[in-house]
Amino acid sequence: MRFFTEIKPLKTYVAEQKREGKIIGFVPTMGYLHDGHLSLVRKAKLQADVVIVSIFVNPLQFGPNEDFAKYPRDLERDLALLQEEGVDCVFAPSAEEMYKEGFSTFVEVNGEITEVMCGKSRPGHFKGVATVVTKLFNIVTPDLAFFGQKDAQQLFIIEKLVRDLNLNVEIVSVPTRREEDGLAMSSRNTYLNPEERKAATILYRALKCGEELVLAGERNPERLKKLIEEFIKTEPLARIDYVEVRSVPDLKAMDVIKGKFIIALAVYIGSTRLIDNFILEVD
Amino acid sequence: MRFFTEIKPLKTYVAEQKREGKIIGFVPTMGYLHDGHLSLVRKAKLQADVVIVSIFVNPLQFGPNEDFAKYPRDLERDLALLQEEGVDCVFAPSAEEMYKEGFSTFVEVNGEITEVMCGKSRPGHFKGVATVVTKLFNIVTPDLAFFGQKDAQQLFIIEKLVRDLNLNVEIVSVPTRREEDGLAMSSRNTYLNPEERKAATILYRALKCGEELVLAGERNPERLKKLIEEFIKTEPLARIDYVEVRSVPDLKAMDVIKGKFIIALAVYIGSTRLIDNFILEVD
């Protein structure tokens, strides 16, 4: 497995692979890998000749009061896991390597898609995401890039970014991996104490409840939101950031639930903010 | 000569050329070509195997009160000129092809480099330039891209954009082409009536005057600006938008003229706004 912390030698490596006609698959991560990340890697292994994983906790996508400093990191463990999966190359740059002195260029996806949900709760977050993803795509020049559906809003924004800026990459989305009890895998789950860990299943159960309501015929998004909110409030450790029911992939509000849509949640369990979603479809 | 108005077939053409190992040279233009553009093309012919010229009057880089609608266009003449130069491929998309329905992603270079000079006079202009250039680079995927020094601020911004976003292209700058009497070639020169055309040489003469002052030992940027402004005011048809003396390439204000620097002018001749500059260097 090749390991790079600098952009230039990585670019040389990628150029060599491309000259040999290899299909490059790319999995961008913030490290502290769990089975969700590894499912992206496995999908990439199936579809690409060369799999490159980046590990970079991007300061640009964290707000001033967010958890950048305490975000969990364990490069050694990550490298061992990726080696085991047969990954070809890991790119783990420093913030200084990614944002050289004088850096001041940003990519911004405008419109409702970035303004609602996590865009509302985390101002500047998606500007940071769009900028780093554009940079990583230009550095790695992948044919395919793999993103998890757990970060559905991010996924839709990146798909739009690729379309709008004519980036030469195909985005592949991969279903959310869950623990036995339904909790979506996330590096932030490590913040939870045992009591909070139990309470955290409220997100999955709330989504299940929402799905059942839709299956039972509920088509009013406001009523659905309200019912899901009430369900979540039964958990004393949970504090709702948002519950949203919106169209997919443009995340518009709907008068009536129809076609492809998302039920998306952000909920604090203690001081840990967790997100989860179901993407559903009705006639 | 190949001619494309759509992105997809152009991308296919470029991919074919790349598979054959060809070096792609790219000259982005807004059309209505003059000898300045053709000098970019000739430079590209020398350095690249395949030369692609784009012709696109980018609505995004024109302000609401600017000359987008009346900007001169003559595709037939442009194609004849490019054919004569031995250009391999012309890309002339419509605005609808470049900005598909729902387009809302922008690239912005922040900081003094985009805030001063034309960035101050034309709010949003460089955001439009950075966005379209990023798109064109992603569409054409050139190895080399050629820009004229007449638009020096644009050139420095694009060089910064390429660095900051890790774009895989080398920027080549080409000296300003001038008419016999020194007027910098520009498609906007066609707006000038004969009297204005004569008056328009004031820009070049003012730059020459500035250069002479520096050669004579002037190192105070404020005093240099003042003297150039006074020189321009001797022309009754001229109205100064800005006269700036700044460092190159970051366009910072200087206490003392030192190293590489630019004398940059924007001057209205009648209702036509013209720009020009000298890039100079002193110990």
Automatic annotation (TrEMBL), chains A, B:
Localisation per UniProt entry: Cytoplasm
Reaction catalysed by this enzyme: (R)-pantoate + beta-alanine + ATP = (R)-pantothenate + AMP + diphosphate + H(+)
A Pfam family recorded for this sequence: Pantoate_ligase
UniProtKB keywords: ATP-binding, Cytoplasm, Ligase, Nucleotide-binding, Pantothenate biosynthesis
EC class name: ligase
Alphabetized InterPro entries for the sequence: Cyt_trans-like (IPR004821), Pantoate_ligase (IPR003721), Pantoate_ligase_C (IPR042176), Rossmann-like_a/b/a_fold (IPR014729)
Nucleotide-binding in keyword set: yes
GO MF entries: pantoate-beta-alanine ligase activity
Catalytic residues as annotated in Swiss-Prot or TrEMBL: 37
Chief site of localization: cytoplasm
Role played: Catalyzes the condensation of pantoate with beta-alanine in an ATP-dependent reaction via a pantoyl-adenylate intermediate.
Protein name, per record: Pantothenate synthetase
Organism of origin: Carboxydothermus ferrireducens DSM 11255
